[in-house]
Design a protein that fits this description.
By secondary structure, the protein is an all-alpha fold. Helix content is 77%, strand content 0%. Helix 1 (3-11) packs antiparallel against helix 4 (91-103) and helix 2 (14-53) packs antiparallel against helix 3 (57-83). The relative contact order is 0.12. Mean pLDDT is 77; it is low at 1-14.
């Protein structure tokens, strides 16, 4: 039995619950943002009604400025909803791949790419090794 599989078996269903919880939290956050968008739309409608009843040009300009600000906020909120994505994979799958990678760092070290070797060193060592200068003795 390899170590990553053993770790996953020990973990049990806890990771599945946490992914479900994250998905539920994402849905709640999305619903909250959508509620904010509808509230902003109601504010715009109310301000438009006030602007139509107003006779002073300065008051109308103030309402227009406030409406423009609310519309910008609505665009930001819609952008948040559009870019909010569901998790790409289940946490168990990502964890298993990560543990398999870390189970045998020698395979990574054997690769020719210096960036992968640096990654192995960063993972293996808490801080960078202190290498003395060659001329110091």
């Amino acid at each position: 039995m390899d170590r990553p599989s053993a770790l996953l078996r020990c973990n049990g269903t806890g990771t599945g619950l946490s992914t479900d919880m994250r998905a539920a939290q994402a849905q709640e956050a999305s619903a909250s943002v959508k509620a904010q968008i509808t509230a902003a739309e109601k504010q715009v409608e109310a301000l438009l009604a006030r602007a139509m009843d107003a006779e002073s040009t300065t008051v109308i300009r103030a309402y227009e400025g406030k409406i423009a600000e609310i519309e910008r906020n609505k665009l930001k909120l819609r952008d948040q909803v559009a870019h909010r994505s569901q998790p790409k994979g289940k946490f168990d799958e990502v964890l298993e791949l990560s543990l398999q990678l870390l189970a045998n760092p020698w395979k990574i070290w054997e690769s020719v790419q210096i960036t992968l070797r640096r990654t192995v060193l960063r993972l293996a060592l808490h801080r960078a090794p202190a290498i003395p200068p060659k001329n110091r003795c």
